[in-house]
Write a structure and sequence with these properties.
Elements lengths: L12 H32 L8 H31 L7 H4 L3 H22 L8 H40 L4 E5 L4 H12 L3 E6 L17 E5 L5 H7 L5 E4 L6 H6 L1 H21 L4 E4 L24 H15 L33 E2 L1
Parallel strand pairs: 1-2, 1-4, 2-3, 4-5
Antiparallel strand pairs: 3-6
Helix pairs in contact: 1-2, 1-5, 2-4, 4-5, 9-10
């Protein structure tokens, strides 16, 4: 077990890179401070001093001071950085107060160096202006380097995810409610494009719309209730994408049993989304209903104002509001889209499904 501020047991190539980078940053800061001191001296005395002798003296003094003490500043800074967890990724260094940890390490190192040069006679001391400028420049350089590394890591991670998402192709699609009017048309389009399609449907209105697809290559049918979690889990094995079209449609049908409407259109949809997320499904598409906009003579689009007039519309709007307001973010493996194009959020607990029997044809 390693303490938060202890040194790493094994010196990896990455640690060596970070140490070398810090050495370069520290020495560049010191050199820049000496150059700034020389420029300020030249600017303030360019009219009073005619000969180059004083400038040469300042330059020689700066070189001697750098050669005599830069190594000690570098060594103290590296030890302070290591004890602060810069190279072992200590808990404090990895936490939210990383900026303060860097400030503490750099400031402590320069304070210790100033103390040693003041009380140890044989050590060459820096001019106070150079010491203060070196501290500020080192602090800015180390903070900027860590920030740049963090931003670069985020950029590379984001690009890697995008490349991985693009490179992974979708082969197997589950169409829930695929025996309906829209679903049966979608299934045929998907088969024509070479996808393997599995349909999960309870066949409430019969199977006339997909009867001719039985025995078709790359087509599989599962008869089952979308409220049955066991049936949904079995149907979703090996699936790359889910198209959820199953719902009770039409206000008259939804008005017969409002509880059943909420179970199918709201609770079951939430459960299906959770199952897809848990199984790592790459794409989840939820087809909402035009009923969310209500009856209108105007041409409507995704930005039009929604209305909760019918029961199915209320269920769709209710479900959309639930996952939009959920606090926990969705995993990157599952995507949710309705007609607003938003992402899926996590719901606390999946609903309890009603028991049903699923069988394969």
């Amino acid at each position: 077990m390693r303490l938060p501020g202890s040194l790493p047991k094994r010196i990896s190539f990455e640690v060596i890179e970070r140490v070398v980078a810090d050495i370069v940053l520290i020495n560049m800061s010191i050199v820049t401070a000496f150059i700034a001191r020389f420029i300020v001296f030249f600017y303030l005395n360019k009219r009073a001093i005619i000969s180059v002798g004083p400038y040469a003296s300042i330059l020689d003094e700066s070189v001697r001071d750098y050669q005599g003490s830069a190594w000690l500043v570098t060594l103290i800074c590296l030890v302070a950085f290591a004890l602060s967890g810069f190279y072992s990724y200590g808990r404090a260094y990895r936490g939210r107060y990383k900026v303060l940890v860097v400030f503490q390490a750099v400031s402590g190192a320069y304070l210790l160096f100033g103390f040693l040069t003041f009380f140890v006679p044989f050590l060459t001391h820096f001019p106070r202006s150079v010491l203060i400028a070196s501290w500020f420049l080192t602090l800015a350089a180390v903070e900027a380097a860590r920030l740049w590394a963090y931003l670069w890591k985020l950029t590379m991670r984001s690009e890697t995810r995008e490349v991985a998402a693009r490179s992974k192709s979708i082969h197997h699609i589950l169409a829930i409610g695929g025996a309906g009017y829209i679903g049966s048309i979608l299934v045929r389009r998907l088969l024509e494009r070479g996808y393997q399609v599995t349909v999960l449907d309870a066949l409430i209105y019969g199977d006339d719309s997909i009867k001719d697809l039985y025995g078709t290559p790359r087509f599989e049918f599962i008869k089952g209730d979308l409220r049955d979690i066991e049936c949904v889990v079995n149907a979703m094995q090996g699936i790359d994408a889910v198209v959820h079209l199953g719902a009770l449609v039409g206000d008259p049908a939804c008005a017969i049993d409002e509880r059943l409407t909420l179970e199918i259109n709201l609770a079951a949809t939430r459960m299906i989304a959770e199952v897809a997320k848990g199984l790592g499904v790459e794409r989840f598409i939820f087809a909402s209903t035009c009923s969310v906009y209500g009856a209108s003579d105007e041409l409507l689009d995704e930005k039009s104002r929604r209305s909760s007039g019918c029961r199915r519309a209320r269920a769709s709007i209710w479900w959309s509001t639930c996952w939009r307001r959920a606090r926990r973010p969705a995993s990157r493996s599952s995507l949710w889209a309705d007609n607003s194009g938003a992402r899926l959020s996590t719901s606390p607990t999946p609903p309890r499904p009603l028991p049903a029997v699923s069988k394969r044809r």
